[in-house]
User: Fold ABC transporter ATP-binding protein from Micromonospora zhanjiangensis.
Amino acid sequence: MTTDLLVARALTRRYGSLTAVDRVDLRVNAGERHALIGPNGAGKTTLLDLVGGATRPDGGRLHLAGRDITRLGPARRSRLGIGRIHQRPAVWPSLTALDNVIVAALPHRRVGPGRFHSRVRRPCLALLDEVGLTGGGTEAAAHLSHGQRRQLELAMALAGRPRLLLLDEPAAGLSAVEVHRLVDLLSSLPRTVAVLLVEHRLDLVYRLADRVTVLSDGRPVATGTPDEIRRSAAVRRAYAEAVG
Ligand SMILES: Nc1ncnc2c1ncn2[C@@H]1O[C@H](COP(=O)(O)OP(=O)(O)OP(=O)(O)O)[C@@H](O)[C@H]1O
Assistant:
């Protein structure tokens, strides 16, 4: 049995005369890995922004676990379980990696000072370990490489114990080793976390996703399993038109 976690209905966002996201219906089941693909400018990042709350829709509705979140801002959505990593990692550069994760974790935990170590610090160190940033306790995040910042942002998103993780091109700018680690990490996330992933690298999409939605000019042109999408004529057409 599947349960709808995220339901978007007729979600629309315009920029002047351009409709970047055009009446999009999208469903993400609890625990599902769902990828958004499509040519440049198809509206993928705008759709993620609409789900995360960074951008307000001009039309349509958005529900998370049955609750209407259309009018909620990003902080409220984050508290309801939507975590996000961005195309350019958003971390606090002057804080250590550990402090970044603690800052991200605190709004999601009710804990008195007496239990800070066991309930916050120790789990945050464990998260750093999980994403491959062991020992990130002392140096300022400004000194981390791009790949390490991406790992840190993932630890920060996980610290909020999300039900839905939004990933915008997580493999961009990573070395082959880092991509390998990222795929292992995303594959090993518990099924209590659903993932909505925008990624240009189709090899990664096909490995990670349960279902794929293809956007073209702001419209969904196909949704299906990786196999169905690979074989879809509509998908080939959308990409072919985009490259001319
Ligand atoms: N803030 C903005 N102001 C004006 N136009 C915008 C804005 N953000 C996005 N757009 C336009 O909306 C359309 C969709 O952009 P979006 O970034 O969502 O596409 P995308 O599928 O993520 O593309 P890419 O794969 O290149 O990242 C594009 O034509 C883009 O130029």
